[in-house]
Amino acid sequence: MRKSCVLAATLLKAVADFIEPGRTIKEIDDYAGRRIQEAGARSPFLGYKGYPGYTCISVNEEVVHGTPRNRHIQYGDVVSLDLGVIYGGWVGDTATTVAVGEIAPEVRKLLDVTEQSLHLAIDKARSGNRLSDVSHAVESFVQGNGFSVVREFVGHGVGRTLHEEPQIPNYGPPGNGPKLKPGMTLAIEPMVNLGDSRVKVLADGWTVVTADGKPSAHFEHTVLITEKEPEILTIPEGVSLRRR
Ligand code: MF3
Ligand code: CO
Ligand code: CO
User: Fold this and answer.
1) Mutation pick for ligand 1 pocket among 162, 164, 186 (CB with most ligand atoms within 8 Å)
2) Does the chain have fewer CB atoms within 10 Å around its N or its C terminus?
3) pTM, whole model, 2 decimals?
4) Whose C-alpha lies nearest to ligand 1, atom 12?
5) Of the bound ligands, which one is closest to the alpha carbon of residue 187?
6) Whose CA is nearest to atom 11 of ligand 1?
């Protein structure tokens, strides 16, 4: 699973670098599909409940599960890219949100707060803590910064399959749920809205958008619970594990 996660992270970085104004979502997803195949891996998203892409690419007011389509990337967009692989029988699942060129200061803050909330949550992913300690870390930090957490979609356990027990909401009081144990692997993935928390699903049956049309951000890591520090598995090849 270490290998599948390093691969997912390495490809996430490569595909994120491929996002440029003028390219369509479909072109970016096709590129990801080629890179995944060249690496000897498969996408766990493709065909999942009928999902039509290799990756999920969600622009601006789109929250998650953006499907490959003809929409062009524009200067000033914020683009969430979620990439998973199955490699050697194990899944790695990771996501980032990138700014294409210059974005408004409040949207920059949205990205920063969402990424920071992920790292605060990861810091709670320790043996002996309870699952909702992770959830609560996201919600309290996000709300403290005036943004809102999406409630309809959650993080999850991950391993031989993409979505395993337990579900990991990004909200709730601390101290609840199962105790975390060494060896558990969790995909922690805050989805944070600039406006209010309501979302809806578009007619394609997949693409989730904010109800108020304001931007949303999404970051995700696959994390291993150990006896000591939580270990982020989805760090790209060649990047020091110490880097946070
Ligand atoms: N990558 C998403 C997650 O982080 C799941 C995508 S499932 C798909 O859990 F079918 F929408 F691709
Ligand atoms: Co994901
Ligand atoms: Co996930």
Assistant:
1) 162
2) C
3) 0.97
4) 45
5) 3
6) 65
**Strands lying side by side in the sheet with 148-149:** 148-149, 191-193, 216-218
* Residue 29 near ligand 1, beta carbon < 6 Å: no
Helix (H) or strand (E) holding 98: strand 90-99
| Closest ligand 1 atom, residue 55 Cα | 12
51 within ligand 1 shell (Cβ under 6 A): yes
Domains in the chain, CATH or no CATH each: 2-232 (3.90.230.10)
Phi-psi region of 49 (alpha: psi -120 to 50; beta: other; left: phi over 0): left
The identity of residue 216, as a single letter, is S
Per-position pLDDT tens, the chain of length 244: 999 999 999 999 999 999 999 999 999 999 999 999 999 999 999 999 999 999 999 999 999 999 999 999 999 999 999 999 999 999 999 999 999 999 999 999 999 999 999 999 999 999 999 999 999 999 999 999 999 999 999 999 999 999 999 999 999 999 999 999 999 999 999 999 999 999 999 999 999 999 999 999 999 999 999 999 999 999 999 887 554 4
Of ligand 1's listed atoms, the one at least distance from the Cα of 49 is 10
Q: How many CB atoms lie within 10 A of CB 187?
A: 27
In angstroms, the CA 113 to CA 195 distance is 14
Provide the H-helix boundaries in 40-179. Answer: 105-123, 131-144
- Taking the alpha carbons at both ends of the chain, their separation in whole angstroms is 20
- Which DSSP category does 22 fall into? T
Please give the structure tokens belonging to residue 121: 């949550």
